[in-house]
Design goal:
The chain contains 18 helices and 16 strands. The chain is an alpha/beta fold. Helices cover 33% and strands 17% of the residues. The strands form 4 sheets. A 5-stranded parallel sheet has the order 3-2-1-4-16. α9 (150-160) links the parallel β1 and β2 (165-169). Bound molecules: flavin-adenine dinucleotide (FAD) and iron/sulfur cluster (SF4). The site of iron/sulfur cluster (SF4) has 14 residues, from α3 and α4.
Length: 464
């Protein structure tokens, strides 16, 4: 019998209640649960959990402070390395990072690092601790950050705490990137994002919203205007499509459009907000990532009777977080696995009415390391639908490369090429996050942003 005390489960609202609204599903630890969970930590001197964190959060140190009920110290300890912990505590795939590396994972009970991070971050927000954030004094000069997703936020914070005058340019009318326009309210409340952005404002970061760089200013304009360095963190926001017959039929959305309308334009509050999205009775979401789960769970909340995830591999190969797959199943999303669309069929008015799918089997692993799906000839079947959401991935918008002569990108993926310091082919211009990595994760965008910011600081210190 293992002597390890069991991990405290993260409380969640019951499925039958949560599918009726867009309020947050996971509830977070209370003080007692957080201290109990923190007491399970072994304070390992070699810190495998910290090493597995892309931004290097000092995990055992902050957890020891939680044990001692020193929540304020724990808050600032995390914040030294992770500028938006209330967000990562909610959306990070800890099960593949810090919690996977935790020594207690070997007995199946890793410390709930994400839930503890969330507890401390929420506690700090409630106490108004971010109001105490102050801009540093070491660095001098202006820095431009293009894009306000997790990569841009990290760079802006890292450089503001070092004393630079940071201006952030964001194409949309709200700050946060995918966090605000992609991830739904029931996983990441907008208030949390605004609270985290408040920290940037306290550090003196100026945010110019509604300012697409490449249209309003070019990168060259910014450098000519006295910005010592420019950071590009414009993400991967251009959706990919399947390229199949019938894909242009009405009520076939890209996940980007569907979720942006729902989240950013508050279509889930229609008619209180003026943006509608049609969600029919039978909705199919094509794909198996976090985006697909978010679209499917959003459709359930907007009253769809049947929501199908159509995915060409099995559940084991799904790139979505395990927890979100479980949440989707609990909420009644139906998984049509080992199935791939072949074409979309419409009615006489040009609206989608059916998907013709092919059954698949799994072959040898492909370049992604996952087993390759192989179509089974003659296995076609029809799925009745009135709305389809395509969630098979996205790539960077080409605007930046089109308007920045000399900026090198990978031809096939459209991602920006950087050196080991995250400097692009243009001196003084840096890039990180999804625009460099392709579709990645919030914490990878932050980890690469952090390293880019440190390199930018080094570069600016050497300038005359
Ligand atoms: C629906 C969805 C759910 C996801 N769920 C998770 C999850 O649970 N966990 C996880 O870790 N990851 C998740 N991801 C992935 C994660 O959100 C991204 O990897 C991450 O947001 C990338 O950060 P970024 O800062 O590089 O770019 P983004 O978040 O894409 O931010 C880029 C910003 O740049 C702005 N921009 C673009 N072009 C310009 C321009 N020319 N001028 C000015 N601004 C510009 C955009 O408007 C945007 O605000 C999800 C992604 C999606 C789409
Ligand atoms: S590996 Fe696990 S038990 Fe060890 S310090 Fe990290 S969180 Fe604590």
């Amino acid at each position: 019998m293992s002597k390890v005390k069991p991990r405290v489960p993260l409380p969640k609202r019951p499925p039958e209640e949560r599918v009726k609204d867009f309020k947050e599903v996971a509830l977070g630890f209370n003080e007692e649960q957080a201290i109990y969970e923190a007491q399970r930590c072994l304070n390992c001197p070699h810190q495998p959990c910290t090493q597995a964190c892309p931004v290097g959060v000092p995990v055992p140190e902050f957890i020891s402070l939680v044990k001692e009920k020193k929540f304020e110290e724990a808050f600032w300890k995390i914040k030294e390395k992770n500028r938006i912990p209330a967000i990562t505590g909610r959306v990070c795939p800890q099960e593949t990072l810090c919690e996977k590396a935790c020594v207690l994972a070997r007995v199946g009970q890793p410390i709930a690092i994400g839930a503890l991070e969330r507890f401390v971050a929420d506690w700090g927000i409630k106490q108004g601790l971010v109001k105490e954030a102050v801009k540093g004094e070491e660095g001098r000069g202006k820095v431009a950050v293009v894009g306000s997703g997790p990569a841009g936020i990290t760079v802006a914070a890292e450089l503001a705490v070092r004393g630079y005058d940071v201006t952030m340019f964001e194409a949309l009318h709200e700050t946060g990137g995918v966090l605000i326009y992609g991830i739904p309210e029931f996983r990441l409340p907008k208030k949390i994002i605004r609270d985290e952005v408040e920290y940037l404002l306290k550090l003196g970061v100026e945010i110019q919203k509604g300012t697409p760089v490449g249209r309003v200013y070019t990168i060259k304009d910014l450098l000519d205007d006295g910005y010592k360095t420019v950071f590009i963190g414009t993400g991967a926001g251009t959706p990919k499509f399947l390229g199949l017959p019938g894909e242009n039929l009405s009520y076939i959305y890209s996940a980007n459009e569907f979720l942006t309308r729902m989240n950013l334009m508050r279509a889930y509050l229609f008619p209180e907000y003026p943006t509608p999205v049609r969600v029919g009775r039978n909705v199919a979401v094509i794909g198996g990532g976090n985006t697909a789960m978010d679209a499917a769970r959003t459709a359930i909340r907007r009253g769809a009777e049947n929501v199908y995830i159509v995915y060409r591999r099995t559940r084991a190969e799904m790139p979505a977080r395990k927890e979100e797959v479980e949440n989707a199943l609990e909420e009644g999303v139906k998984f049509t696995l080992l199935s791939n669309p072949k074409r979309f069929l419409g009615d006489e008015e040009g609206r989608v009415k059916q998907i013709e799918c092919l059954k698949m089997k799994l072959g040898e692993p492909d370049e992604s390391g996952r087993r390759r799906p192989i179509p089974i000839p003659g296995s076609e079947f029809l799925l009745d639908v009135d709305t389809v959401v395509i969630a098979i991935g996205a790539r960077p918008n080409p605007l930046m490369q089109m308007t920045t002569p000399g900026l090198k990108v990978r031809e096939k993926e459209g991602t920006i090429i950087v050196d080991e310091n995250f400097q692009t082919s243009i001196k003084g211009v840096y890039a990180a996050g999804d625009v460099v990595l392709g579709e990645a994760t919030v914490i990878e965008a932050m980890g690469t942003g952090q390293k880019a910011a440190w390199a930018m600081h080094g570069y600016m210190k050497e300038l005359p």
